Amino acid sequence: MIPFSPPRIENEIIEEVIDSLKSGWITTGPKTKLFEREITAYVNTKKTICLNSGTAGIELALAWYGIGPGDEVIVPAYTYTATANAVVHTGATPVMCDAGDDFNIDVSKIEKLITSRTKVIIPVDVAGLPCDYDELNALIRKKSVLKKFTPGNDLQSQLGRIMILADAAHSIGSEYKGEKSAAFSDGAVFSFHAVKNLTTAEGGALTFNLPKQFDHDELYAQLSTKSLHGQTKDALAKVKKGGWRYDVIEPGYKYNMTDILASIGLVELRRYEKDTLIQRRRIFSKYNEMLKKYDWALTPNLETNNKKGNAHLYLLRINGIEESQRNDIITEIYNQDVVVNVHYQPLPILSYYKRSGYNIDNYPNAFRLYKNEISLPIYYDLTDENVETIVQALVNAYEKVVKKNHVEEAV
User: Which positions ≥6 away from 310 have C-beta within 8 Å?
Assistant: First the structure.
């Protein structure tokens, strides 16, 4: 069986985890703090806080910015549910926008969704290909959009416009105009879940790149407090002489990362640019090379214009088929001991969001992309022989399903 996306766990990671266990620091400690600094340097932002998930990063940023009932946050209709769920948890309303042809949010459709209640836009770099950040940043600074912006607190007044909070769960290491794409938003949230390019088993990070009027050291202190029940000292601070006393200044959250997780991330980050990314991009390109001879295979882009993806997912689309045929093709691929997936079911087709009044008919491009999408396995240890097996399984499945369909139509 060829799996979909197993983690890359090697001796270097095991030894780093053992080192953490032996050190006595198994909660938030020196390795978490080091991991934060190294992420900041790698993506060229101003400050990073590591957390227990990417979802926690979105929720923490929204809470810090004062998002709550009555506010609106624009999210893509084509994304994993965490993007919108985080908005729901604040009491605000997710306003969904249709997808463009690259699976990312269609910036051309955002302006008509903006109202005086719009406080944040959360674009998602689907599959690790960056969104159109120049267009997004130009939009939120447009006079007609600025005129609509109605701040609800001092922080929102200080920013003076809609905040761009990138859901970069897929896209650590992705590039926009030759720079890491996280630097093109006010804040970016990474996921280090087990299936991500860079994993800490579970975990995430929130990195900020706000304008110069914001004190990022002060922001980091505020987020650290908010991420630990509103407590003014974390475990590392409390071990210092006389450091037992702390205060709780707000009812915060329990979002902190542990040193055990950070130890995995430190190894992953050290080898990421010069090893992991190279291998993933090579596999991605091999798929494209092998599939280009099939006119039914709509292959994804790794690079386009000013964007360079990190090959997090391989989002193949099958031309000329409907959702039911796509599902049958997936079944036939599974029957050949290859695991594939679908990324994603658009939010409006999920039960909770349907019950909440969202209708997939209002997001036609999202459904058009979804109905014939199949995600092929892509991970570091995937061999060329594995890729050839996967492609052959796909071709076999396509021919079986489409041929069966043609026979049924003829009858």
Answer: 128, 170, 171, 172, 173, 174, 197, 277, 280, 281
Contacts of residue 363, defined as CB under 8 A and 6 or more positions apart, other chains included, come to 77, 78, 96, 98, 99, 346, 348
- Residue 165: inside a domain, yes or no? yes
pLDDT of the residue at 238: 72
Relative to beta strand 187-191, strand 204-208 is antiparallel
Evaluate whether 333 touches 351 at the Cβ level (below 8 Å). no
**Is the C-alpha dihedral spanning 358, 361, 366, 368 positive or negative?**
positive
Over 90: is that where the pLDDT of 240 sits? no
Establish if 91 belongs to a structural domain. Answer: yes
Residues 222 and 365 in one domain: no
Residues 211 and 344 occupy one common structural domain: no
Number of domains in the chain: 2
Classify residue 342 as left (phi > 0), alpha (psi -120 to 50) or beta. Answer: beta
Distance (Å, whole) CA 393 – CA 400? 11
Confidence category of residue 408, pLDDT binned at 50, 70, 90: low
Q: Which domain holds residue 82?
A: 11-270
Q: Among 218, 252, 270, where does a domain finish?
A: 270
- Distance, in Å, from the CA atom of 10 to the CA atom of 107, rounded to the nearest integer, reads 41
Give the Cβ contact number of residue 249 at 10 Å.
Answer: 12
- Give yes or no for residue 411 having a pLDDT over 50: no
Q: Report the sign of the C-alpha dihedral through residues 145, 147, 151, 157, in that order.
A: positive
Q: Give one DSSP letter per residue of 126-175, joined into a string.
A: GGG----HHHHHHHHTSHHHHHH----SHHHHHH-S-EEEEE-TT-TT-E
Q: How confident is the model at residue 322 (pLDDT cuts 50, 70, 90)?
A: very high
